[in-house]
Amino acid sequence: MKIQGLDFLVIALYLIVISAIGIIMKKRAQRSKNDYMLGGNTLPWWMLGISNASGMFDISGTIWMVSIMFVYGLKSIWLVWLWPVFNQVFLFVYLAVWLRRSGASTGAEWMLTRFGTKKDAQMAHKIIIAFALLSCFGFMAYGFIGLGKFIEIFLPFSSVAPYVPFHVSPEFVPHFYGIIFTLFAVFYSVMGGMSSIVWADVIQYGLMALGSVSIGIIAMSELSGQTLNVPPDWSKIFFGWNLNLDWSNIIADVNQKITDDKYSPFGMFFSLMLAKGILASIAGPAPNYDMQKILSTKSPRDAALMSMFVNIVLLPTRYFMIIGFTVLGLLYYKDLNIQTASGGVDFERILPAAILKFAPAGLLGLFLVELMAAFMGTFAGTLNAAQAYIVNDIYLKSIKPKATNGEISQANYLVGIVVVAISIVLGIFAKDVNSVLQWIVGALYGGYVAANVLKWHWWRFNGSGFFWGMAAGIISAMVLPYVFPDTLPLYYFPLILVLSAVGSVAGSLLTPPTDREVLKKFYRNVRPWGFWGPIHDEVLKEDPAFERNKNFSWDLFNVVVGTIAQTAITSLPVFVVLLMPMQGFITATVLAVCVFILWKTWYKKLPSA
Question: Which H helix or E strand runs over 453?
Fold first, then answer.
């Protein structure tokens, strides 16, 4: 066990600090529901942006991204479009402004601003709660698995077993570690609510940035004077219909990994991923911590700035770390312990194995804290979102509408414990990080797309349509993995999309439209573009000075420019660490041009504070 006393001290200080934040923020969080769930809408946009970035800098995602960078090289930059990562561009260009104008506390409460309070609206309200909780449980289970696999490498259970009063089977060891460290995330997030989460995330991001730069510098130093032994196309960011990556004479196990991932032919996979990503981005943020951070901003302008800032603080820092660990893994692959207990190769162990080999005492503790912080931020933000949906949208609306602040606080504590317990059970039964990720982004989020695109852009879409569209999508996401057990979820995403779209349109056209007053109020406040003709005409009769949203063309243009900028800011640290100056210079130039264009066409046109 390489971990030393100094490393334990760094870890202990970190756990003490974040626990203290929860205690300090407890009193503020107990003042009201809004203070607990949204920080009282008083937090500055840059802090919320850092917090959101910290939540996205999750340990499981980072482990997965290092493994795919190792296997697929620079082409792996496109694979994160599975989330899709460019949804942040749609958000900062226009969707965050639309969402924040609603004044809702959760995505489920937003349903009532769009569909009213009649029976169909209540159906929409309940189905989005079901989806939100499914996605929250999935993400927490996903983070739980990654943390356990990470800690297991640094603390072999043989050194811990004498202090554990019960038997732990080898297969359960990652879950055992996951449970222990999950409890700290639960403590500060449940105690202090959104304010506690944001303050902890800001501290955690500072640690992440320091660790990322350190590992990037170490990788550059090790790479200097050496050459990576990789296939010829590994260092090329662009691709054709096929991957053309042959590891046979280098690391034969990698070819098996590529086969198992089922990303070939890559051209077809990319096309499906892009189409699904665009639709998912137009649908708006899923009801998780990302949406809660947007709703926590002071104003629509702050919501846009916060979503923009996420890209600046997250991507360069994260990819400095990812390419750093990848380079070290490639240079010293034979010296890394990434074997499983059954004798196979687990590429998701590259990141922790590289830390174990290269980090000196003290710095090892920093890396451990950095990645534990990544887990804590994601887990705490997702837990806060799950609490918000259960307490705000179930307890306060259906069980005890007149609950006191004390009763609301007690409900938050109880709900937090129950949600964590369920997510741990799901994490124990899940196969691995990649399997959970693929189900969330390929199947479950596929069922979210159709109904949530229509809710912004079609006036005739109603609560019944939303309910049946979401129900068809969620049921498909739950059933189709068993119908197509050996198929990547992305490949049956089109079927989920069609079933959900049929449910959405049929459910709307076979039932009465939403009340006109509700639609007019929503259209006035949110001001979306799309198919709102009849509602626009009625609003114009009542208010001749009202102007429709004419920004569709500019929004589309800014999304394209923003996506290019986002890809450039992702690629730049990769080229820097790989010591590829020409590619780095070209990428920096593209980024600078995009930033200038967005300053003229987006920033200067933001709504005033």
Answer: helix 446-457
Q: How far, in whole angstroms, is CA 538 from its chain's centroid?
A: 39
Count CB neighbours of 159 within 10 A. Answer: 10
Condensed to tens digits (0 to 9), the pLDDT of residues 106-134 reads 877 888 899 998 999 999 888 888 877 87
Q: Say how far apart CA 439 and CA 481 lie, in whole Å.
A: 8
605: which strand partners?
Answer: none
Quick one: 537 exposed, middle or buried, by C-beta within 10 A (0-12, 13-18, 19+)?
exposed
Secondary structure of residue 70 in the 3-state scheme: helix
- H-state helical runs in 391-441: 405-429, 433-438
User: Is the CB of residue 90 less than 8 Å from the CB of residue 282?
Assistant: yes
Residue pair 198/45 in contact (Cβ under 8 Å)? The answer is no
Return d(Cα 556, Cα 534) in angstroms, integer: 24
Entry pTM: 0.86
**Do the beta carbons of residue 74 and residue 574 sit within 8 Å?**
yes
Angle, helix 463-483 to helix 107-115, in steps of 10 degrees:
140
> How many whole angstroms separate alpha carbon 504 and alpha carbon 482?
24
* DSSP tag of 361: T
Give per-residue pLDDT as tens, 241-295.
888 888 888 888 888 888 888 887 889 889 988 998 899 899 988 777 788 889 8
Contact at 8 Å (CB) between 40 and 34? yes
- Residue whose structure tokens are 């959405």: 504
The CA distance from 251 to 249, in Å, is: 6
Amino acid at 297: T
